[in-house]
Amino acid sequence: MAKKIVVIGSLNYDIILKIPRLPECGETLPADQAGFSAGGKGANQAVQAAKLGVETYMVGRVGKDAHGDALIESAQKYQVNTDYITRSEEVTGMGVVEALEDGSVFSCIVRGANFDVAKADIDRAEPVIREADLMILQMEIPQEINAYAIEKAEECGCRVLLNTAPSAPIEEEYLKKCAIIVANEVEAGFYLGENVDSVEKAIKGIKKLQNIYGNDIVITLGKEGSVVSDHGVVTFIPSRKVHAIETTGAGDSFIGGMGYALLKGESLTEACKFATGCSAITVSRMGAQDSMPTLQEVQNQ
Ligand code: ADP
């Protein structure tokens, strides 16, 4: 039987506006460029795993609106199984990103249907969770549903990877039940209560987190790379030197890539090296889901 990943999380309809500057109060400012991108951390991670050839199931919610149709179509285009995406009375989750010429980015998010994800959705997906080798979670659905999913995974014997994005307080009991925790430097700083803006600080911080939670941990550090604590052995994995064009989805591509390599039976450290190759390609192209590589592209790198 083929190995499976189940991703439980968010789907967002992202609108990206390129603007020369922020508008003044009361001003209507024309945008230089506008675009749509299928997003949401959950959907992005599912798409990356599916693009690498993993049988991937997405559990989440979108509204009964055209944005919801577009997100389901996009996931299906990349072979993500969408049978467990439920249509909700709420509007589809949305992101509005305003990108200025100097590279600064301002975003607002509408949680919408993502916050309607319910225990019933997890129960409905139980047959898939039972067969899955890895459950991937993020923090863009209600915390209590993540907690329920973690318990369900434990009951079904499914390993959990939790991406603590965006960071929010989580009960220690649930963090301890996750086999792997992946945080970027901001999120790691949140849980440690101290700054993690260098490789040295990440190495120190990851040891502290490992001592508290006991699980395997990864801290990603943007263009620097990542630090991995794999059964207590800490390794720094530098990023690939590429010309980065757009870094949206770098972390999601990394997690989808990790999922693929873990299912192949790689150690966490080796999985992160593979994931580093995936995100290097993602950042060197425009877009999020569209820019994520196929297996062949990673192998040809
Ligand atoms: P997030 O998107 O969650 O904030 P990061 O920005 O830490 O995640 O990026 C995740 C991974 O993507 C990094 O560990 C690194 O391997 C890769 N990456 C990110 N930015 C770059 C870049 N500019 N060049 C090469 N690789 C990058």
TrEMBL record:
<dbReference type="InterPro" id="IPR002139">
    <property type="entry name" value="Ribo/fructo_kinase"/>
</dbReference>
<feature type="binding site">
    <location>
        <position position="252"/>
    </location>
    <ligand>
        <name>substrate</name>
    </ligand>
</feature>
<keyword id="KW-0963">Cytoplasm</keyword>
<keyword id="KW-0630">Potassium</keyword>
<keyword id="KW-0418">Kinase</keyword>
<keyword id="KW-0479">Metal-binding</keyword>
<protein>
    <recommendedName>
        <fullName>Ribokinase</fullName>
        <ecNumber>2.7.1.15</ecNumber>
    </recommendedName>
</protein>
<feature type="binding site">
    <location>
        <position position="184"/>
    </location>
    <ligand>
        <name>ATP</name>
    </ligand>
</feature>
<dbReference type="GO" id="GO:0046872">
    <property type="term" value="F:metal ion binding"/>
</dbReference>
<feature type="binding site">
    <location>
        <position position="140"/>
    </location>
    <ligand>
        <name>substrate</name>
    </ligand>
</feature>
<feature type="active site" description="Proton acceptor">
    <location>
        <position position="252"/>
    </location>
</feature>
<comment type="similarity">
    <text>Belongs to the carbohydrate kinase PfkB family. Ribokinase subfamily.</text>
</comment>
<feature type="binding site">
    <location>
        <position position="287"/>
    </location>
    <ligand>
        <name>K(+)</name>
    </ligand>
</feature>
<feature type="domain" description="Carbohydrate kinase PfkB">
    <location>
        <begin position="3"/>
        <end position="294"/>
    </location>
</feature>
<feature type="binding site">
    <location>
        <begin position="40"/>
        <end position="44"/>
    </location>
    <ligand>
        <name>substrate</name>
    </ligand>
</feature>
<feature type="binding site">
    <location>
        <begin position="220"/>
        <end position="225"/>
    </location>
    <ligand>
        <name>ATP</name>
    </ligand>
</feature>
<dbReference type="InterPro" id="IPR011611">
    <property type="entry name" value="PfkB_dom"/>
</dbReference>
<dbReference type="GO" id="GO:0005829">
    <property type="term" value="C:cytosol"/>
</dbReference>
<keyword id="KW-0119">Carbohydrate metabolism</keyword>
<dbReference type="Pfam" id="PF00294">
    <property type="entry name" value="PfkB"/>
</dbReference>
<feature type="binding site">
    <location>
        <position position="285"/>
    </location>
    <ligand>
        <name>K(+)</name>
    </ligand>
</feature>
<dbReference type="GO" id="GO:0004747">
    <property type="term" value="F:ribokinase activity"/>
</dbReference>
<keyword id="KW-0460">Magnesium</keyword>
<comment type="pathway">
    <text>Carbohydrate metabolism; D-ribose degradation; D-ribose 5-phosphate from beta-D-ribopyranose: step 2/2.</text>
</comment>
<keyword id="KW-0067">ATP-binding</keyword>
<feature type="binding site">
    <location>
        <begin position="251"/>
        <end position="252"/>
    </location>
    <ligand>
        <name>ATP</name>
    </ligand>
</feature>
<feature type="binding site">
    <location>
        <position position="291"/>
    </location>
    <ligand>
        <name>K(+)</name>
    </ligand>
</feature>
<dbReference type="GO" id="GO:0005524">
    <property type="term" value="F:ATP binding"/>
</dbReference>
<dbReference type="InterPro" id="IPR011877">
    <property type="entry name" value="Ribokinase"/>
</dbReference>
<keyword id="KW-0547">Nucleotide-binding</keyword>
<comment type="subunit">
    <text>Homodimer.</text>
</comment>
<feature type="binding site">
    <location>
        <position position="248"/>
    </location>
    <ligand>
        <name>K(+)</name>
    </ligand>
</feature>
<keyword id="KW-0808">Transferase</keyword>
<dbReference type="InterPro" id="IPR029056">
    <property type="entry name" value="Ribokinase-like"/>
</dbReference>
<comment type="function">
    <text>Catalyzes the phosphorylation of ribose at O-5 in a reaction requiring ATP and magnesium. The resulting D-ribose-5-phosphate can then be used either for sythesis of nucleotides, histidine, and tryptophan, or as a component of the pentose phosphate pathway.</text>
</comment>
<dbReference type="GO" id="GO:0019303">
    <property type="term" value="P:D-ribose catabolic process"/>
</dbReference>
<feature type="binding site">
    <location>
        <position position="282"/>
    </location>
    <ligand>
        <name>K(+)</name>
    </ligand>
</feature>
<feature type="binding site">
    <location>
        <begin position="12"/>
        <end position="14"/>
    </location>
    <ligand>
        <name>substrate</name>
    </ligand>
</feature>
